[in-house]
Amino acid sequence: MTDRALVVVRPGMLTTVQDLGRPGYAHLGVPRSGALDPPAAALVNRLAGNGPDAAVLETTLDGCALRPRSTVTVVVGGAPCPVTVGGRPAAWGAPVVVPAGELLEVGAVSAGVRGYVAVRGGIAVEPVLGSRATDLLSGLGPAPLAEGTVLPLGRPAGPPARVDTAPRPGPPAELVLRVTPGPRADWFTARGRYDLTARAYRVSPASNRIGLRTEGPALERAREGELPSEGMVLGAVQVPPDGRPVVFLADHPTTGGYPVIAVVRAPDLPAAAQAPPGTPVRFVPVGRH
Hints:
Blueprint: E1 5-10, E2 16-18, H1 38-48, E3 56-60, E4 64-68, E5 72-78, E6 83-85, E7 88-90, E8 96-98, E9 104-106, E10 114-119, E11 150-152, E12 175-181, H2 190-198, E13 201-203, E14 211-215, E15 230-231, E16 236-238, E17 246-248, E18 255-256, E19 260-264, H3 269-273, E20 280-285
Parallel strand pairs: 12-20
Antiparallel strand pairs: 1-4, 1-11, 2-3, 3-10, 4-9, 5-8, 5-10, 6-7, 6-9, 12-19, 13-14, 13-20, 14-17, 15-18, 16-17, 16-19
């Protein structure tokens, strides 16, 4: 039994191991997966003294509680939340030393959706296809955390970063997603294409790591029926039979038969990971680059 490990005391609503994901396997039906908010995951890794590919924990809404078997340095970031060590308040967004046996409590978010917990040395679960990421769609990678799960830790690669502040954008009050036309935009009427970028939408509570679902006006179709399955990309805006757009996120399927009316610019997707249900969504058309 190694003492370089964390024991999960409270797993929270959904806490998973994530890293940069496993790109390059779409032809095998394997999504990229990885952290939904890559800049937030990269920042906590940097503050903890880890390399960019170290695995972290991604929490959802209500955090988690962990007990290290040896003294560790951790950084909690992403969505703002209270942090305690042994019941005492600790820093959010900065390196914190957690003594062996003390309880690290990552509380419920005060804004946003997903928090990130980096431990100096990284989460050292066994990689699958070169990644330690949990993929909820394919089932690859470690299972979501459960009470009693033991997470092995890697050896530290360097000291924690020495910074006073590390600015990060806050969770969006309005989610603005820049879009270019998708390959099946012609499956929608001129009115349907207009409504996508002119009407108001909201983030649906049915959203998850696979896709951000929306509530709002149904988009009018010009063609009936569905497509033979074709390749799907990160950020694809797919329109299922109910007519409400779905933005594909990290665990999205690699193929699909519903038409893709648009594609979201990649830099806008981290904000989608932090948009709670009810957040207004606006699709903004931009030219192709």
